[in-house]
Fold this sequence. Notes:
Elements: E1 22-23, E2 29-31, E3 39-42, E4 47-54, E5 61-68, H1 69-88, H2 93-108, H3 118-125, H4 128-139, E6 148-168, E7 171-193, E8 199-222, E9 225-247, E10 254-259, E11 264-267, E12 273-279, E13 286-293, E14 299-304, E15 307-312, E16 321-329, E17 334-343, E18 349-354, E19 359-362, E20 368-374, E21 381-388, E22 394-399, E23 402-407, E24 416-424, E25 429-438, E26 443-444, E27 453-459, E28 468-478, H5 480-485, E29 494-496, E30 502-503, E31 507-513, E32 518-528, E33 534-540, H6 551-554, E34 559-563, E35 572-573, E36 583-585, E37 591-593, E38 598-603, E39 609-612, E40 623-631, E41 637-644, E42 652-657, E43 660-665, E44 672-673, E45 683-689, E46 695-700, E47 703-704, E48 708-709, E49 721-724, E50 738-747, H7 753-764, H8 766-769, E51 770-777
Parallel strand pairs: 11-17, 19-25
Antiparallel strand pairs: 1-2, 3-4, 4-5, 6-7, 6-9, 7-8, 8-9, 10-12, 12-15, 13-14, 13-16, 16-17, 18-20, 20-23, 21-22, 21-24, 24-25, 26-30, 27-33, 27-51, 28-32, 29-33, 31-32, 34-50, 35-36, 36-39, 37-38, 38-50, 39-49, 40-45, 40-50, 41-42, 41-49, 42-43, 43-44, 45-46, 46-47, 46-48
Amino acid sequence: MRKKIVVGILTVLLLAPVMMVQIDRHTKAVDIPVMTQPQVKVTSQNDVRMICYISGQGGNRRTSVLVPRDTATQCYHVFQQLKENITINPFNEQTQQLKEEFVALLAHNNLIPASIPPSRYHTLLNPPWVQTLMKHHASTTRATSPVRSGIASAVMCDMSGEGTGLMFPFIMLPRPRLVMVWMGLDGDMAVGKFLTIGGFIASGQQFGTALGFWGIGFAVAYPEGNIYGFAGYALFVTVTADQIESYPPNQAPMITGTDPVDNEQNVPLSLSELSFSISDPEGDLMSYTVTTSPDIGSGSGNLKPGGTYTVSVHGLQDFTQYSWTIAVSDTQHTTEQTFRFTTQAVAPIVSNPVPADGEVRVPTDLQQLQFTLKDFQGDAMDYTVETSPFIGSGSATGVHDGTYSVAVSGLHNLTTYYWYVNATDGVHWTRKIFTFQTWFPAHFDPFQNGWHYRKQITIDQANIPEDLTNFPVLVSIVDSDLKVKAQADGDDILFMNNTGYATLLNYEIEQYDGTTGTLIAWVNITDLSSAFDTIFYIYYGNPTIFSLQNPEKTWDDHYLAVWHFGETSGVNVADSTKNHFNATANSNTPVTVGQIGNGRYFNMVSSEIYVGTQPAFGGLPQYTVDAWALPQTVIGEHRIFDRSEPSHKNTIVFYQQNTKLFFLTNNVDDPSYSNAFSVNVWTHAAGVFTGSGGENVVYKNGVKGTPITATQTSPTAGSITIYLGRACVDPSASYRWYGTLDEMRFSNIARSAAWINVSYQNQNDPASFLVIGPEETSP
């Protein structure tokens, strides 16, 4: 059998030995580290033979044991997870626990020689210097140093390396060399700095150059390829490699001292430059770029030391918000921040249009247009209002700051209207153009407009602990009358607040099956009373009408996102709110049966739903996360909702850990609910953050857990990422959800205990929560 030859060189002054491993293609080991992945050979349908090689003091040892196939699989998965954790977070507590678990697993299955106590392996896997680094890792807020590709360099250092590839000169004796070059198709090399503590390790395909090298090295040619190895000292070394990891972890550059300061108001139009300061904790040279939006100028600089820099700007407009983005890189880390400022207003300001600009589904019985006028200098103003197509106009002179309206009439269905507001203070002039699209009257009698049937729906006051406003009620029914009399696609189904001439309620149909009469709809009940029964009506049976549902207004302005997971297939996951934070499920997150209609299944290994980078989910004084969760395991940690920055700081994490439910804010405040989860049992889970100094609390099935006092402010906006069903920073299987998720929501306020309790009652058993009356027919 052909063997690959391994060259392992121990580097002087490194914190730990660099151990190189190669195993031949026929699985016979040539050189094994202290603990290597057990080899597996199938011997029967249910049993496999595991072979574990261990080397260290006393030479190499080989243990061969026959074990069940499940045990071998478990060893393999634990080892794979351990390798991944060592790469991503070598010094965190979970990694150290995995090491202990791996040794215990091998010892339990007699893969460790009986003559060697397991404590010996614990010491080897967690030597004293690792314990020191763990304490340092836990006590510092410095950024981690993830494995990356790119360039690394060092001055006045020692170095060692080996690999498959070429080295020049081919043979080096211990004497000075002006230049030494190597090119590894697959290699490893380590560098330690003399002048400062630290260094780096480069792995994989690489190209390196050392100047002023003193040491030894050789290259050997074999039919299967060339190998090389070297060790020594250098005045300067630079390496480009597939994988580079630095130690101590390199810290990202910092941006400070911006002028204008972030969110500054009334900035003079005469502003001619933007100013900012950059610095790097290690003193690295930095490159920066600055861009603006709207574009008023840009700039860049390369290999700059820490200091203050400026970018020229021009053409500023009055009362305009500008954003400027600074990106600073030290070749290893890039810091990017966006700042904003608003210029001073010299002309009158027209704002707060009603209907809002671009609004759709505006009722045709709209009676007026409304807007606000303001002049920052306090000048009197004149204004005129025009419409197209014409539905009304108006004007006034000598007015001051305030809200004004213009009467309109004669609006038509499904029509786009434009309206123009012109305002002047006698010197400066402003013109604003707004648009809206009509829909259907907000008030009408369905029986007088083509509908033939209705049923009364009653909500018992006893189920409502306190009055709630704009509450989305779930109507989930299977109705044979709908099957026979409604349109096949349910477009004629609507909800009114009363009989006769009444108000059309905002509603969203999540699912309708005309072949069975199955309806899942969400209806915004304006006032849900605790003092008397709430009554509303479902109408159907109009063969010519289009759908009047209005999903965006079904959910109040405090819902940032509502994901029903109601899609029947595909990777798109729609957000029903006006914010349209639509998400993407990967192909391993299929549609399945949910608590309410459909849900999404997560396999714990590769499933995920990606919401994206959404700054709107940060900087909130309060917030609420809630979802339905069906776990298939109550062992380990599994994320439901995760919003984190790349540094794993500034977090909102909603997760299961064993049978407990946790809600983490900024990596500090972490209330829990014991026994929240059971295997294959649906749980309605909610987490509420009421702000620093207030409650941070979780709910299970509408029942409030024990709150803790929040010590942290809300996570800020920024370069954040949001995932559903997995962790943002650590994508390992140990953090992914295993089971089904459904009806996930995020609110920018702290929902009340009554809101969460009623949500659970309604969604857990809608048939009991609602009483559906008999069918009534149009006269």
